[in-house]
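Fold this complex.
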Amino acid sequence: MNRTKAFTIPYVVWMAIFVVAPIIMVVIYAFSGADGGFTLANFASMGDYTVVFVRSFRLAIIATVICLVIGYPVAYLLSREGARFQRLATVLIMLPMWMNFLLRTYAWMAILENNGLINQFLGLFGLGPFQMIDTQGAVVLGMVYNYLPFMILPIYSVIIKLDHSLVEAAHDLGANSVVTFLRVILPLSLPGVLSGITMVFVPSVSTFAISTMLGGGTEFLLGDLIEQQFLGGAYNPQLGAAIALVMMVIVVLCMWVMNRFGEGEEQAVVL
Amino acid sequence: MKKNSALSRAFTFLVFLFLYAPIILLIIFSFNQNNSNVVWGGFSLNWYRELFHNRIIMRSLYTTLLVSLLATVIATIAGTFAAIGFYGLRRRTRNVLNTVNNIPMMNADIVTGVAMCLFFVAFFAGWKDFALWFNSVQTLFELPTRLTLGFPTLLIAHITFNIPYVLLSVSPKLRQLDKNMIDAALDLGCTWFQAFWKVILPQIKPGIVSGALTAFTMSIDDFIISYFTAGSSSSTLSMTIYGMTKKRVSPEINAISTLLFVTVLLLLAIINIREARQEKLALRQQAAPASLPAAAGNPGRRKPRAPSWLAKAAAGIACTGVLATAAVGAFQNTRQPVVNVCSWGEYIDEDLITQFEEETGILVNYQTVESNEALYSLLKVGAGDYDVIVPSDYMISQLIEEGMLEKLDYDQIPNFSLIGEQFRNLPYDPTNEYTVPYTWGTVGIIYNTTMVEEPITSWGAMFDDKYAGEVLMFRNSRDAMATALLYLGYDLNTTDEAQLREAAGLIADAKSRGVYQAFVMDEIFLKMEGGNAAIGAYYAGDYLTAVENNPDLAFVIPEEGSNWFVDAMCVLKDAPHYNEAMAWINFIASTEANLRNMDFIWYASPNKEALEQYPAYYEALYEEELDQETYDIIAAPQEVLDRCQSYVVLPKETRRLYNELWIKLGIQ
Amino acid sequence: MSKELIRLSDCVVRFDDEIILDHLNLYINDKEFLTLLGPSGCGKTTTLRIIGGFLTPTSGDVFFDGQRCTDVPPHKRRVNTVFQRYALFTHLNIFENVAFGLRIAKTPEDEIARRVEEALELVNLPGYGKRRVESLSGGQQQRVAIARAIVNRPQVLLLDEPLAALDLKLRKDMQVELKRIQREVGITFVYVTHDQEEALTMSDTVVVMDKGNIQQIGTPEDIYNEPKNAFVADFIGESNIIDGIMLEDKVVKMYGKKFPCLDGGFAQGEPVDVVIRPEDIDIVPVDQGQITGTVTEVTFKGMHYDIIVDFQGFKWLIQTTDYSPEGARIGVKIDPDGIHIMRKSRYSGMFGDYSSYSEAYDELNVDADAVTEGSDE
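Structure:
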C-alpha cells in the first residue's frame, strides 16, 4: 500500500492552504490593529462583550441540554423499533435539512408571532395572546429545532451498534431494565452523546441568523457580534477575528474537558 | 426485544411533529393565493408559476445547485483518494491529519467562514501587488489586478468543508476492507491500478455514496460559510432567503423549497422501496435449497449493500456537474457585456432589467444588500464585485471621502437632465460629479389604527410605556439614533457627544422598560402586516407596500420633523464595466423607468417628469384615481420636506461613538 | 522427486528491528505438496508472501524455474493464492469471482464460461455461479476461493491456512478434498498451517519452522519418527523429552539406568535429549518395569487413556489402552525402537515435561496464531 501515501499529498496541500492558513489569518488579525501593527487592544476591549459571551454560552448550553433530553430518548426508542421503521425514521430525521434552515426558522416566526398560529389557536379558547417571539425562549427553540437531528443521529448510530447480548448479560446478572440502562446502555452510548453534544453546542453558540430572526434583534449573540464586524454595520474585522478566536478557544477547551470523560472512546461517526 | 409502549411511541411521534410542523406549514402556504405565511387566502399555483420568472431566485438556485454539485464531485474524489492515502499511513501521521481533518467539522461555521474570508481578502491583496509588479515587468500577459469573492471562492469553501465528511464516511469502509482482497486481486493478475478500480472502489462504494450524499446535503443546507465566502455576486439560495427573511419571504421561495423537498422525498422513498425489495429477494434466494448441504452460514458478515442504481445516480450527478461546469465555461467565453448592480431588496421593477438587457444586450447581475453599513463592509472586505451601487446620501459622502467612488461621465447619461433641480448638488455630492439620484423618501412612523387609541403624532410614541412590547425600533444605528435625537429636539447630524449619549440613553431606557418588541429592518413588513406590533418607525415607501396587505396601517411624519433621504446611483472606483454602468444609469434615469419603479416600490422619483406624470400613469394603469394622501406619502410635499433634514456624513470620531453606543445598546 | 521449481536463497525479512525470516534457504519441487508448519510468528506466512510476490525480502533472492524473480510483482507470477479468510470479492457473484483472473487476462468470453464451470465442478460447486458470496457457507466459500485460484492454471498454488476458519468436521473433509484436487490438477501446492495433523495428512514434504528458521525438512514420516530437536519433537505429536547421556552407540542412560536404543554416532558421554512417544510406552507390573512411577492423572480419550506418570519429579504422558487408577505405582517398559536420541539444541529443556499439561495448550496456540499471522502491520 506504499504508493497510496502519495494520495494524501493533494489533500494535505489543500487543507494546509484552506484550513490551516485561514485560521492563522484569524490569529494574525486578532492581534493587529486597524493600521496593521501588533496590538492587544482587541482583547482588551473584550470585556465590553462579557454579557454577549455569557448570554451565548448560556443559551447554547440550555439548547444542548434540551436537545439531549429530547434526543436521547428518541434515539433509544428508535433503536428498539423494527428495521424498516428505523430506516424510515433516520431518513425522516435527515430530511428537514433539505428544506433550507432559514426558511424553517422563518416558518417558526409565523407560528410564534403574536398573531401567529399558536396564539390564534389559543385565542379560540380565549387564552393569550402570549409573547413568544422575540424572546430568549424563541431563540432556544430555534436552536433546538435546527440542531436536534445532530443530537439524535450520533446517539442512535452508537446505540444501534451495541451488542444486544450485553443487555441480556446484564439482565442475566440480575439487573432490571432501569439498572441495565443506567449501568450498561448509557455508559456505552457515551461516545454518541459526546459527539451529539459537540454537534449541537458548537453551532448553537455561534449561530447568528436564528437570533436575529427569532430574538427580534435584542438577543445579540456572539455570532451576531462577529457578523457585525465583518459584513454588518460595525466594520472592524480585527475585533471580529479576536472575538472569533476567543470563542474558538473557549469551545475547544470545553470540548477537550468533555472528551476527557470519554477518553479512549473513538469518536462516533457523524450522521 | 421488547417493543415500545404506546406512550413512548407517542413521544417519538411528537418529536417528529415538532420537526415537521414548520415544513408542513411552508408547503401548505406555497399554495396560498395571497403572499402571507399566516393567513390562508385560498388554493392557487400562482407562486409556482411566478417562480420561473423570478430571476433572483432562479439564479441563486442555479448557483446553489452548481456549487453543491461541483463541490460534491470534487470533494468526493479528493476525499476518497485522501482516505485511501490515510489508510496506508502510519498511525501517528494519520492521527495528526485526522485532527486537521476534523477542524472544519468541529469548528463553528462562523469561524470557518470568517477565517476563509480573511484568508481570501489577504490573498487578493497579495495578488494585487504581484499582478501589478508582473504587469509592469512584462507585456505578454496582463494579469487581472482586482480579485473579489465570488463563485470560485464559494466553491473552494464548499469543497473544503465537504472533504472531511467524505473522508469520514469512506475511512470506516476501508478499515473494514479485507486487506487480503487487494492481495487476491494482485494475485489474480491485476496491476495495482486494476486492483484499485475493480476491487477497492466497488468495495468502498457504499461509503463513497453516503459521503457524497452527506456532502451534497451539507452544501445545499449551508448558509453561514457561503455568506462569508461568496461575496454577493453569487448568492446561493440560502443567502437569497436570508436577504428575504429580513423583509417578507416571497412565497416563491416556499414553492422552490417545496419542489426541492418533494424531489428528495420521492428519491428517498424510491431508494427505500427498492432496498426493501432487494432484501426480500436476497432472503428468498437464501431460502432456496442448495444442491450441497448448506453448512452454518455466517450471518454477521452480511452487510447491507447500497443499491447499484444509487451509484448510477451518483455517477449521474457527477456527469451533470462536469457538464454544468463546461456550460458555465462556455457561457463565460461568450464575452457578453455585463454590468454588476447592487441595490436594496425589492427596490426595482424587475421587468426593467429584462428590458434593459433586450435593448442593449448587456447582461445585468442584479444583487441586493441589507443596509448601507453592510454595503460598506462588503466593499471594504472586497466581497462586492459591483459596478453600480445605490447607497444613501450619508454613505455616499463617506465613500467619496474615502476615495472609493469613480466620477461619472455625464455625457453618457443624457437623462440626467431630467433630474429635478432640488435633487442636484446635494450636500453629499455638492458638485454633482459622482451620483445620479435613484429615489428619495421620508422616514416616519407606521402604526396600526386598531391597536392605538389616538393617532400617533410624535416620536415620543417610540419611547412611551403605553405601547410597551408593541413598538418596533430600527436595527441600524443612524436611523434609531435619529428618532431619539428628533424627539429630544436635537440636530440629526449633531456631533455633540453629550447629545448623542442622551439620545442613546433614551433608547436604552425604553429598551430596559420593555417598550421594544424587537429591533428590525425589513422584518417590519411581516410584523406590521400581521398585526403583531402596533408602532414601528420606517420608510414611507415601505409603508405603502405594507398597507396593501393590511389596510389598518397608517403613516405619519411626526411633528418634530424627520429625515428625508436620497438614494443615488454611483460607480465604484476601478469598476470593470464602466461604460455598461453608464448605460444602466442612463436607462434607469429615464422617465419611463422612473414611472415603473415608482409604481413598483412606492418610493418617490427624482425625475421631474415622472413625478408629475405619476398620478396620470397610475390612473391609466389601474383605472382609478390615485388619492392625494397616498401621493403625498410617496412624494412628500414641500411643507413636509421643510420639516425634514437629510443626513450628512459624520466625522470619524462621531461614527466611532455611534458604533460604541450602538454595540452597548445591543449587548445591554 | 521431480525437478526443482522454486528456490528461496538466503532470504532475510526484517520489519524495523525485528527479524522475521533469518537467512532462509528452501527449494520446492514441481508437483509437490509442501507444507510450511510452525507456530504463530514462525515466519511461515511471510515465506508464503515472498513466494507470492506480496513481499520483497530485505535481502536474499527468489528463483522461479531458475529465473530470478525477487522483484517481480504478484500479477506477473504464475502463482496464485488461496487466502486465509478466502478474500472473495463480495461485490461480485460466484461466477465473476472465479472469472476475475481470466477477465484481467482478457480471455475470450466462451473460454471463460467453460473454464469457470470446470473449476466450479472441480471444487464440487457446479451451478453456483449466479449466487452471491454471502449466501454461501464457509466451506463453500473456501471452495470458491480455490476455484478462483486454480482456474488461472498457475504453476504453484499457495494456500495460507485455508482451513483455519472451518469447524473440525469440515476441516477433515476439506483435507481429503484438497489432496484430491492437487492430484487432479497436478501442480505444486505450498500450504501454510499451524496444525501438525493437517501437515502430516496431506503433505509430500513438511517444513517445520520456528522463529524465522527452518527446524527440519522431511517427509511426514521422517518428521514424526526422527525429529531433529526438542522443538520438532514436541510440535509434531506428543513427546516426552528426557535428559540422557549417550554411553556408547545404542545405549543411553536415563534416571541412572541404561536403556537400549537404535541410534548411534554420538560421542561417548555426550548429553542428549531422549524422545519417547507416549504410545511407545508399555505399562507393566512394577517389578518388570525398567523404571517405576506414580500415576497422577488419568483422562479417558475414547480409544485410549492419557495418563500422567510421575517419574522422580519428571512427568510423562503415556497413552495406553490399559486403565491404571490414580495413585497406582506402575512400571514401564520401552522397546529400543521407541527411543529416539537427539543432539542438544537451543530448545533443550523447554519441552517434553507434562507437569503443566493441559488440554487448553493447543487451543491457545491456535488463537495466538490466527491473530499474529493475520495482521502484518
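The two ends of chain A are 29 Å apart (CA to CA).
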